[in-house]
Amino acid sequence: MATVPLKDELDIVIPTIRNLDFLEMWRPFFEQYHLIIVQDGDPSKTIKVPDGFDYELYNRNDINKILGPRASCISFKDSACRCFGYMVSKKKYIFTIDDDCFVAKDPSGKDINALEQHIKNLLCPSTPYFFNTLYDPFRDGADFVRGYPFSLREGVSTAVSHGLWLNIPDYDAPTQLVKPLERNTRYVDTVLTIPKGTLFPMCGMNLAFDRDLIGPAMYFGLMGDGQPIGRYDDMWAGWCCKVICDHLGLGIKTGLPYIYHSKASNPFVNLKKEYNGIFWQEEIIPFFQQMNLSKESTTVQKCYVEMAKQVNEKLGKIDPYFVKLADAMVTWIEAWDELNPPTKDSAKATNAASK
Q: Would residue 2 count as lying in a domain?
């Protein structure tokens, strides 16, 4: 690659419990970028990173040292710990990927540069207010179709690019159990904006976002060790982000790029982690669908704190866990603001987004 898009403006965040040999496959695409590795589990274990990568690595001891008492908001023994990497990054953009995700091939057999496609998605506007039947009008070979209002063709800033996966689909445990051999082989050459008012299940294994526009809402919740729920970390962040993006006039795209998800996690282990969430989501989703944020919430942080209050009041009735989660959401924002004091640029970005 002659030019490296956003080389100095993008960090790659990877949560892991193992040696990062998978990076060898990604070397042509990742080597020019800075990596933030968040080591989960036992901090005394040494994680090996292949030579030639520019990276910083944080383990649980580092998290405790940097955040002090606020470290309680970062999940332990769960990939949700990745959001600590979002907090310590100083770049405008973040790409996050799991360590069991490999380079996928397009239908012609060519390796897919997932990061490059995410960057394209983030740098093009979104169209959440009116659906374009040719999907993303900003892609080569596409445009706005007849009947699309000219007043809406400028679009809005894209805050999130949500990529997909070939091979092992991102299924919940019950679906995994009834379809153990199912593999996703369909490559759909499409990017589309998720319409305003529509929620979606966000998957964190192939995801990019504009940290300046939506970073403080990318909190992956309290999951894993000591919590009554797991595997809802990215979905929780996705529901929060979507409501805030709709409120602030920002867009979320989904579709390309694909990565190759190499191995299925154990459905019986997953069922234990998801068990409460499968019941709770039937009340959580209507809660987010009906949520209204006040006009006073003009920044992501203000939106998120207001959201935490509603989580406490309305979801706290379902289970005490949600009272704890609401407190952690506020703690997360306090920690974010401490590590990321507002600058003139971030104030400008927030003001532009809220107009």
A: no
Residue 152 resides in a domain: yes
Question: 103: domain CATH number?
Answer: 3.90.550
Assigned domain for 59 exists: yes
Distances (CA, A) of 82 to 10, 98, 207, 234: 15, 10, 12, 10
Task: Name the residue type at position 352.
Answer: A
- The whole domain housing 305 covers 10-340
How do the residues of the chain divide into helix, strand and coil, expressed in percent and rounded to 5?
40, 15, 45
Token pair in block for residue 275: 């068990």
CB 103 within 8 A of CB 27: no
The answer to whether 65 touches 49, Cβ cutoff 8 Å, is no
Could you count the other beta carbons within 10 Å of the beta carbon of residue 336? 22
Residue 350 within a domain: no
**Side chain identity at 230, as an amino acid letter?**
G
The 10s digit of each residue's pLDDT in 208-267 is 999 999 999 999 999 999 999 999 999 999 999 999 999 999 999 999 999 999 999 999
Split into its structural domains, the chain has a count of: 1
pLDDT digits (tens, 9 = 90+) for 45-90: 999 999 999 999 999 999 999 999 999 999 999 999 999 999 999 9
Cα(338)–Cα(54) distance, rounded to whole angstroms?
25
Is 307 within 8 Å of 294 (Cβ atoms)? no
Q: Which of 288, 332, 333, 294 is nearest to 311 (CA)?
A: 288
Q: Whole-model pTM? A: 0.96
